[in-house]
Amino acid sequence: MTSSLSRRALLAAGFSASALAVTACAPARSATALAVFKTPTCACCTAWIDHMRQAGFTAEVTELPNLRSLRTSHGVSDNLASCHTALIAGYVLEGHVPAEDVRRLLTERPQAMGLAVPGMPLGSPGMESADGRREAFETLLILKDGQTRVFAPHARAIG
Q: d(Cα 7, Cα 75) in Å, to the nearest integer?
């Protein structure tokens, strides 16, 4: 009877060690890892991704012919739409959201779906102009019920 218990204990220990090794070797999903979805021809999306990478985020980019169904499935209404959609740590990011707003979102962890910068405001990250012109814009917090509220104003309009 003791040999049977010893074999079982040995097998259980071996299984536990194997499971631990597999878990330790699995790639951890970093809190700064973005899954970005964009159309193939959008240059400003690429510029936004560069902005995020320069701020310390990593980005896995997927090109899709149309983002509408992706947006809809993540609770982003058409009036919040922009040219790219990203996912990070359980949140959706729509459009040219500044990196500092994403960091704040990840720190505060509000009960919300994510952030949006509707449209493509001139001067927002990825939409910089050569002459430095900027539009005032707001980053909106998308609440669980689909409503929004201002998360961060960016009111430095120039030009």
A: 52
Q: What are phi and psi of 77, to 5 degrees?
A: -75, 160
What digits encode the pLDDT tens for the residues 123-154? 999 999 889 888 999 999 999 999 999 999 99
Q: Which residues pair with 38 in a beta bridge?
A: 63, 84
Kindly report the pTM of this predicted structure: 0.79
How far, in Å, CA of 47 to CA of 55, rounded? 13
List, in order, residues 6 or more apart from 112 with CB less than 8 Å away: 91, 141, 142, 143, 144
Does residue 134 contact residue 156 with C-beta atoms inside 8 Å?
A: yes
Distance, first Cα to last Cα, the chain: 86
HEC string for the chain: CHHHHHHHHHHHHHHHHHHHHHHHHCCCCCCCEEEEEECCCCHHHHHHHHHHHHCCCEEEEEECCCCHHHHHHCCCCHHHCCCEEEEECCEEEEECCCHHHHHHHHHHCCCEEEEEECCCCCCCCCCCCCCCCECCEEEEEEECCCCEEEEEEECCCEC
Of 129, 132, 46, 57, which is closest to residue 83 (Cα–Cα)?
46
